[in-house]
Structures are given as structure tokens and as C-alpha cells.
Amino acid sequence: MILKDKIQIDRPRVVVWSYLRSPARMKEWDPKIRAVVPVSWGEPAEGYRYRVRFNMKGRESNFLAEFLEYQEPAKLLVHL
Prior knowledge:
- By secondary structure, the chain is of the alpha+beta class.
- It has a domain at 33-80.
- The chain has helices at residues 13-20, 26-29, and strands at 33-38, 49-56, 59-71, 75-79.
- It has a 4-stranded antiparallel β-sheet with strand order 1-2-3-4, with no helix packed on it.
- The chain is globular, with a radius of gyration of 13 Å.
């Protein structure tokens, strides 16, 4: 299954990117996220991995996520 989404955010690019490059900050803007645990060490780049736990429709789901493309501050492709 491939899900794609595109949104327009009315904030400076540097502010938006600070949230995208740090998976731990996802909990600040997505109430469905219960936990984010880094798997990789160091600065985010292609290949950076982390685990994320979502609560969707009353059920928790765990995913391993990986940055497949990382082009700061223009493009981030995440595989769950």
C-alpha cells in the first residue's frame, strides 16, 4: 500500500523542517502518536531509523520508520 499526502503549511520552511527532521517532535503536532524511539544514532540523514507507536481508532500500532530521502530543507521521504 502506498499512501501519499501533500499539504500547505503557512510557516517558514526552517520552522517546519525543525519538526520533520526530529521524529521525537512529532508528538507535539500529532495527537495519535504515543511514542517515538530512535533506532539510529547521530544526525538525521538517509537511512535514519526510528520506531513509532500510533493510536488509531482505539488500537495501537507499532511501525519501524526510515528516512529514504533526506534533502534538507526541501524533501523528506519516510517509509513506515
